[in-house]
Amino acid sequence: MDQSIVSKPTILLYATEHISEDILKPVLYGIEEEGLPVVIESHSGTHMTLADLASRNSALSVGIGVDDEAIVLTYKNIPMHQFIYRLTGYAQYPDSLRTLGVNAARLVKGNPFVSDERLEVAF
Known about the structure:
Elements: E1 11-15, H1 21-33, E2 38-42, H2 47-57, E3 62-66, E4 70-75, E5 85-88, H3 94-109, E6 120-121
Parallel strand pairs: 1-2, 1-3
Antiparallel strand pairs: 3-4, 4-5, 5-6
Helix pairs in contact: 1-3
């Protein structure tokens, strides 16, 4: 797995190679509507390992990991097996994907999260 440290302040989204950027557009729109940049990179791994790696490589300490099973939002300072939000079957829930993106940006900004009943919370 390519481990590159991104020094500019961006939220990193790591996805497995075959995840379509079209599926991820709502996440990107949610982050961008909150005024933060996001970078998408292809990596191999599970949604949990990708999210953890992305959060550790992000200058903002926020990472999103996506595989066929789920999309996960996490923060660098929480254990790898935990997450902030997870959404399984995400392709059929563009509104929830957008909310996950908004919440990723709000995590960086320290603003309250937007609630969404489809987003699973780890703790």
